[in-house]
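Reminder to self: keep the SMILES exactly as supplied, no canonicalising. Ligand is zinc ion.
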Amino acid sequence: MRALTYHGSHDVRVETVADPVILADDDIILRVTATAICGSDLHLYRGKIPQVKDGDIFGHEFMGEVVEAGSAVTRVSKGDRVVVPFVIACGTCFFCAMNLHAACETTNPGRGAILNKKQIPSGAALFGYSHLYGGLPGGQAEYVRVPKANVGPMKIPDTLVDEQVLFLTDILPTGYQAVLNAGIGPGSSVAIYGAGPVGLMAAACARLAGAEQIFMIDEHPYRLEFARQAYGIIPINFDEIDDPATAIIEQTAGHRGVDAAIDAVGFEAKGSPTETILTTLKLEASSGKVLRQCIAAVRRGGTVSVPGVYAGFIHGFLFGDAFDKGLTFKMGQTHVQALLPMLLEHVERGELKPEVIISHRMNLEQAAEGYRLFDKKEDDCRKVVLRP
Ligand SMILES: NC(=O)c1ccc[n+]([C@@H]2O[C@H](COP(=O)([O-])OP(=O)(O)OC[C@H]3O[C@@H](n4cnc5c(N)ncnc54)[C@H](O)[C@@H]3O)[C@@H](O)[C@H]2O)c1
Ligand SMILES: [Zn+2]
Ligand SMILES: [Zn+2]
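Structure tokens returned for the bound complex:
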């Protein structure tokens, strides 16, 4: 089959590789009908995630048709059209029982990303996301093996086309969980850092939750303008406004700050020359630029919600300010499985239309160009969908 494979920083290629086969009796093989490139794939693409090997297949946002099912698979069958969560969960362990599927302690044979790990079991395996997360082949391919098929894959009604449901695999639940974690409700004010796909999904979900004032911060005018038109956000371009938090606070009642801030950027945040140098020299793993902005923009007693990915140390984390303001922090990988049925209903009712953010539709064979455009933010690229 054909698949997108990694060969070093900024070098991905579509190559012919071995077809996947069933390995466990609760596996299925999926013929991929649509797959997307995620901002998380860009961390891999830029060589920022350890334990990615030459030839690894990327891709954790995919859907398709079941072409083969192991003997113990009961939830889906051959011919079904399904979306697949990027998190692989067993459904029965301590964490799965609490609906914390990203913490599933049985699916990841890798060591996970915690530095000071001690005896703690690794969190869930992820598709196509380095050997820290299990080393499983991803779904930017013609076919993919999906383990734990009685837990992850969800059937999709024929009334919905692929593009309407593809983002249920990751970015829609991620935006939703970010809003849930931020405690956003009717009348809330929120600052969303990052106008990429995750920030856009968070804006859509914040609107759904009844947020009144949504600030969005990025440096790409085309992304901010799209978000303004689609979700009525108040744009702040950090290329023009050096300290977005000051600009945000100025526009909030009593200069108190926003109820919540969402960091939809993560560890590769731009804007701190010191941290850019430190991370390039690998003296530090993450840029704390956006986290510091979030802590500064939020009101006392507010919440900082972090869907953006972080790794290792950050210097200049203003914990004292967070303490003085009495802030709550919530973060982590998305517990996709728990959110899917409810989000599918929102999509069916037309209350969430995640597909509107798609800017590029390409063939799988053009995937390397898709990565390049999405990474460089060229051609007004917001989100790339690939069809094998
Ligand atoms: N928690 C999860 O389960 C989960 C799931 C999906 C994605 N993610 C993570 O979410 C993050 C965003 O993903 P995406 O697909 O939207 O990626 P993206 O790279 O397309 O978007 C990131 C945006 O942040 C902007 N940005 C950079 N520095 C900034 C700064 N200092 N202030 C404000 N904006 C800044 C960039 O210009 C870009 O538009 C990534 O870190 C990704 O790994 C997490
Ligand atoms: Zn992702
Ligand atoms: Zn589990």
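Points to follow up:
The pocket of zinc ion (ligand 3) is lined by residues 89-90, 93, 95-96, 104, 106 (CB under 6 Å).
The mean pLDDT is 96.
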